[in-house]
Amino acid sequence: MFELFVNAVVAGVLLGGFYAAVALGLSIVFGRLDIVNIAHPAFVIIGSYVAFIMNERYMLDPILSSLIFLPVFFLLGVGMYRLYYVCFERTGQESLSGLAYFFGIMFIIEVLLILYYGVDYRNVQAPYIGETLFLGFLGLPYRMLVPFITAAILTGLVYLYLSKTFLGRAILAVSQDRLALQLMGANPVRVKQWAFGIGIATAAVAGALLIIIQPIEPSVGRLYIGRVFAIVILGGMGSISGTFFAALIIGIAESLVATFIGPSWAPAVAFGLLLVTLAVRPQGLFGRAG
Fold first, then answer.
1. In whole angstroms, what is the distance from residue 264 CA to residue 254 CA?
2. Which residue among 83, 277, 281, 285 has its CA within the 20 to 30 Å range from the CA of 51?
3. 240-260 and 142-164 are packed helices; what angle lies between their axes, rounded to 10 degrees?
4. DSSP for 237-288, written as a single string
5. Does the pTM exceed 0.90?
6. Is residue 48 within 8 Å of residue 113, measured between CB atoms?
7. Nearest 5°: phi and psi at 139?
8. C-alpha count within 13 angstroms, C-beta hemisphere, residue 146
């Protein structure tokens, strides 16, 4: 029983690392810019298909291909925010119309992927997929360990960028004091489009990690919509470190529930933890980033 418990906890930590990678971009966009980008998981799926295409045609490692396409996803995010700003934010219609905008993008992406690739599951090939590292009775599948390490590095780099650079600090401040930001010589709209670009760029890496962990098809992203929003709120709106640790908590909780109660109960864990946290600590476990 003890060995089963330890393996379940470790599996939850590795799973939580992947959740952190998926939620990272949303933590910036939703937590810092107050933009409810419900289409974020759809861009993760695009990242998965990019990794699949590059792996199938050129045998590129999924993570390497996601890094190559980071600038493309960043520019995609910039363009997406510019359209959102012109159509909704500038006219003060971002609350409801903006939400419909992201819903529309999500379904357009899904339909286009279905039309082109169908609903068949796709996967990738890499030397570490299918291999397991054993430390005594502890098993660490590389298909989970590699994504965890990648997610931890990605989170650390984003945290350092936001906390140590001028533009990063401007992103942290843009939703708090727009006037002070302008007095610093920064254009709030440009800061937001840069932040949105970073948020979508992280989805490229998260997508590569997803297809390493499991086969994907166009509608898989729907499974993560509620979960990633729960992680961002649970960790404290806009807190990068809080998002990472909240993802680990949810990953561990899901793994324990799936192991000892049943896999069908695991999806309810994130929302259960979120409801309890909001009742006890409305600002999230780690508080909103200052």
1. 10
2. 83
3. 160
4. TT-HHHHHHHHHHHHHHHHHHHHHT-GGGGGGHHHHHHHHHHHH-TT-SS--
5. yes
6. no
7. -105, 125
8. 21
